[in-house]
Amino acid sequence: MEKTALICGVGGQDGSYLARLLLQKNYRVVGTSRNPNAALAGNLTKLGIAKDVECIPMESADSRSVTAAVTLTNPDEIYYLAGESSVARSFVDPAKTFQSVTLGAIYLLEAMKQSNKPMRLYNAGSSECFGGASGLIANEATPLNPLSPYAIAKSAVYWLIKHYQQSYGLYACTGILFNHESPLRPAHFVTQKIIQAAKEIAAGRQSQLSLGRLDIARDWGWAPEYVEAMWLMLQQETPQDFVIATGTTMTLMDFVEAAFKQVNLDWRAYVVQDSALMRPTDLLVSTACIDKISQTLGWRPSTIGTQVVERMFEPI
User: Fold this and answer.
1) Is residue 256 within 8 Å of residue 194, measured between CB atoms?
2) Per annotation, catalytic residue among 60, 85, 90, 126
3) In the chain, how many domains are there?
4) What per-residue confidence (pLDDT) applies to 305?
5) pLDDT-based confidence at residue 109 (cuts at 50, 70, 90)
6) Is the pLDDT at 104 greater than 90, yes or no?
7) What percent of the chain lies above the pLDDT cut of 90?
């Protein structure tokens, strides 16, 4: 029988790639957005799937809106990808960030608890919650140590998921996502900022690129592969949390160098550091262990390290 998936935040990078994946698996895909028309006209159109996705309005911070979305669609699987996704923006408006991330999760869990139909919920967690893990390689047992309003909000939802799973027996789990990119990454993210700047400088339309710290290190993966891990998590008999990453870490300087290499330029001639772009607190090094997801789900990424940078230059 055809399954129905409700993707909260379908217009974003992950939501759009997930919608494409689930359509390929013959799901009925319903997506939510604050602005359904904009979501359909954006990434879903870029991927050529806008006509195949039902898009409905939902405001994550409004309990009635969330409950109505669940009642209307009666989904088998819910993917909660909504809310603020930028660490930098969370420092500008921490209250809005916390509300946008946490309230939607609570309302979805409450709607599941009140439903007569068994539903499964995937929650998009974040490696930012580890806060550097004191230099350790992070896995599913690593204690959380959030260093930003965004990470604090994501950590709160992580524990909410645990609470509803253990207290009410709901099938709810968290994928602890490390950084993952694609051509659909919004322009305000530093990775896309770097890619676009390299293109513009090579074309003679831009003279330099201003960045904050270059010594930060991240585990960068490929978003279309990560959404498959999300789906796999909800196909298991019991809900489990998983780290979703590549197991390979590189610095932002390495990322910049690889990007400018794609346009045959020496990045050092064009990149300047701006202290105004440095955050009050920042995660310096992010490293992951992917043993559990590899052994349990059989999932391993094929795009790692500088390959991610190279693929961001590819057409959608």
Assistant:
1) yes
2) 126
3) 2
4) 95
5) very high
6) yes
7) 89
Q: Are residues 157 and 118 in the same domain?
A: yes
CB distance 166 to 228 below 8 Å: no
Q: What are phi and psi of 294, to 5 degrees?
A: -70, -45
Q: Which residue has the higher pLDDT, 102 or 85?
A: 102
- pTM value is 0.95
The two tokens of residue 54 are 């039902």
Q: Active site residue: 128, 181, 225, 257, which one?
A: 128
pLDDT at residue 134 above 70? no
Of the candidates 150, 11, 131, the residue with the CA atom closest to the CA atom of residue 93: 150
- Examine the domain organization and report whether 47 and 192 are in the same domain: no
From the candidates 80, 122, 150, 158, give the one annotated as an active-site residue. 150
Residue 88: what pLDDT?
80
- Concerning whether 155 is annotated as a catalytic residue, the answer is no
Answer yes or no: is pLDDT of 279 > 90.
no
Residue 150 a catalytic site member: yes
- Host domain of residue 18: 4-180+220-244
54: annotated active-site residue: no
CATH number of 116's domain = 3.40.50.720
Whichever domain contains 203, its CATH number is 3.90.25.10
CB proximity list for 161: less than 8 A, separation 6 or greater: 105, 109, 121, 123, 172, 173, 174
In this structure, what token pair is assigned to residue 46? 């870029």
**Residue 13, in any domain of the structure:** yes
Instruction: Indicate if 44 and 102 belong to the same structural domain.
Output: yes
